[in-house]
Amino acid sequence: MFLPSAVFVNGKFCKNPKLVGADDFFASGFNSPGNTNNPFGSNVETVDVNKIPGLNTLGLSLVRIDYAPNGLNPPHSHPRGSEILAVAVGSLLVGFVSSNNQVDGGNRLFTKVLNQGDVFVFPIGLIHFELNVGRTPAVAFTVLNSQNPGITTIANAVFGSDPPINSDILARAFKLDKKIVENLQRKF
After folding, report:
1. 15 occurs within a structural domain
2. Alpha-carbon distance values, 187 to 20, 100, 159, 165 (Å)
3. What's the number of domains the chain is made of?
4. Which end of the chain is more exposed for a tag (fewer CB within 10 A), N or C?
5. What is the pTM of this model?
6. Dist CA 16 CA 185 (whole Å)
7. Tell me, what's the pLDDT at 1?
8. Under 8 Å between Cβ of 167 and 181
9. Residues 21, 22, 23, 28: what is their CA dihedral angle, to the nearest 10 degrees?
């Protein structure tokens, strides 16, 4: 039931300012490493408007990413936010691919190895990734300029859609044998 005085902004209800408290602007736990015992060897912990209601309309999110040695944050994009990443511990190979409609040559890979204290920017909507290239765990923090930036993990979206994209279409698009595409789809 909607209250006649409720205000709905950016997909979230705004609280009556008289009912807002400090907890609406607070989250804890970023000091604890995330579990990287998974196939990618990484863990992403996001603080966005879903965890801190006070972020609604402020255009900010914060992310902690933990990486095991050789851990990967796989190719993904954020349709509603640019991102700036700062390495707190370790060394990361990071990169993004420019859009494919640029006059000066699209699909360009911009990549760099970052060390502790280094910063890198991922423009809005572009496919990007991070890989721990060190022999020890790594930690990075990112800020996104959206309280709800969204995420599209490329392999999951392409090979794990529900219902599945027709394997003939993917075989042609990726120039792969249809059986390879079907095998990839089964993995997702």
Report:
1. no
2. 45, 28, 8, 14
3. 2
4. N
5. 0.89
6. 47
7. 47
8. yes
9. 180
Q: What is the CATH number of the domain that holds 92?
A: 2.60.120.10
128 is in an annotated binding site: yes
- Any domain includes 27: no
| Whether 40 and 83 share a structural domain | yes
Where do we find the tokens 């205000």?
7
- Determine whether the annotation assigns residue 83 to a binding site: yes
Query: Token pair 């990549």 is at which residue?
Result: 111
Residue reference for tokens 């400090």 = 22
What's the pLDDT tens digit per position in 54-81? 888 899 999 999 999 999 999 999 999 9
CB 149 within 8 A of CB 123: no
The residue segments making up the domain with residue 159 are 153-187
Instruction: Extract the tokens encoding 84.
Output: 């700036």
The answer to whether residues 157 and 130 belong to one domain is no
Q: Is 16 annotated for ligand binding? A: no
Query: Quick one: 167 and 101 in the same domain?
Result: no
Burial 123-162 (b: 16+ CB within 10 A, else e): eebbbbbbbbbbeebbbbebebbbbbbebebeeeebbeee
Residue 72 domain-assigned? yes
Both 133 and 175 in one domain: the answer is no
Question: In the chain, count of helices (H) and strands (E)?
Answer: 3, 12
Which residue, 168, 164, 163, is CA-closest to 179? 168
Q: Which amino acid, residue 63?
A: V
